[in-house]
Design a protein that fits this description.
single chain; alpha+beta; Aminopeptidase; Alpha-Beta Plaits; 9-stranded mixed β-sheet; 17 strands; globular; binds (2S)-amino(hydroxy)ethanoic acid; binds manganese (II) ion
Amino acid sequence: MGPVEAAAGGEAPAAEAPAAVLLDPVAALAELAPLGADPVRGGWSRHLFDDADREMRAWFVRTARSLGLDVEVDRNANQWATWRAGGAAAPAVATGSHLDSVPGGGPLDGPLGVVSGLAAVARLQAEGHRPDRPIRVANFAEEEGARFGVPCLGSQLLAGDLTAERVRALTDTAGATAADVLAGAGIDPARIGPDPDRLADLALYLELHVEQGRQLAPLGHPVGLATSILAHGRWRVTLTGRGDHAGATELDSRHDPMLVAAAAIRSARDRAVAAEPGTRSRATVGKLHAVPGGSNAIASEVTLWLDARAEHDADVRALVAAIIGDVEAASAAEGCGVVVVEESFSTRVEFDADLTDRVAAALAPRLGDVPRIPTGAGHDAGILAAHLPAAMLFVRNPDGVSHSPHEGASDQDIRAGVDALADALRALTSGGAA
Ligand code: HGY
Ligand code: MN
Ligand code: MN
């Protein structure tokens, strides 16, 4: 039997009562595991509307409907599952996360929040909770930005933080435009963009996510609350030189963009290390593409992507300026060209203190005083935090590793996360609290 089973231990409930089903998060994650498993990179690769993402979305619809939820896709390709339970038509309490991944990512980054949201709703239904407002579980589109390069695409469009024109023109590595990919999935590209009515219909957003980094394990807590997200952005750096023969070209006549790329990668680390410790600066080049890419040819062009993060926006700007300065100097010395394009920038996020306190109070009877920790990872909750009260729950990640097949959480902690989310959603939908 799959993860959705009758509350009373598996046998079918009495015919006259609607089946109250429980959703076991561990079994649900096991059911998702084959979808998008990446045999080349390891881990999982699930990108906006590729086959794996479509299968994940189909799972979301199937599972949400099995819980009696109303399922819809909004104009920006975000999926929503709503439990009304006869409550007032007041703005909803929302939870959820994303089902897309980075290339070769882990099994929990995103899916844990969506699965836990559905499992928490199933739990509340089974206990007979009557929410005083709708509860909504979201699957936000293209949170990782792995297909079109811009993170939190669905939530940023919803919130009006990205222009529809820009998004329609985004292209993936095969040259397909976002407009074409969305149209191919039944989303009208002419309608993407701000959705103020839907945003106004959300009272708050509480996202559960696997911890990324290792803060909870030393504290001995299975669940934590988020305080803030580092400011962060992505820059595409295109270096141009002169393609030539690796053997026949004398060293003093080369214009090798790969050499400039090496300087960029070195500078990213060196400049982050040299930054003021309080800025918590970090910079990474994780993706690089060389043209023509022959092992016996000097590249004519190299494109690399710089990911830079720090405590505050100004710290990120200073870090990136220093790195780009180094790149420009290296490029001039090698007789190459440099073009830098800012692909995305997410300002520092402080989560809603009042909502976080209310969630902490709801968790206290079961978990005591839950730790509050900052994160260096971006989330849809970080986008929505500028538009409505938002908070995050983290589930302990023993090794802290993420964006890697080695990301993980124990079954016990996964279930503790659902307990905590159910406690929070119950409190937030009881007696007009939200
Ligand atoms: O990159 C991030 O921080 C997030 O995983 N999208
Ligand atoms: Mn991620
Ligand atoms: Mn994530």
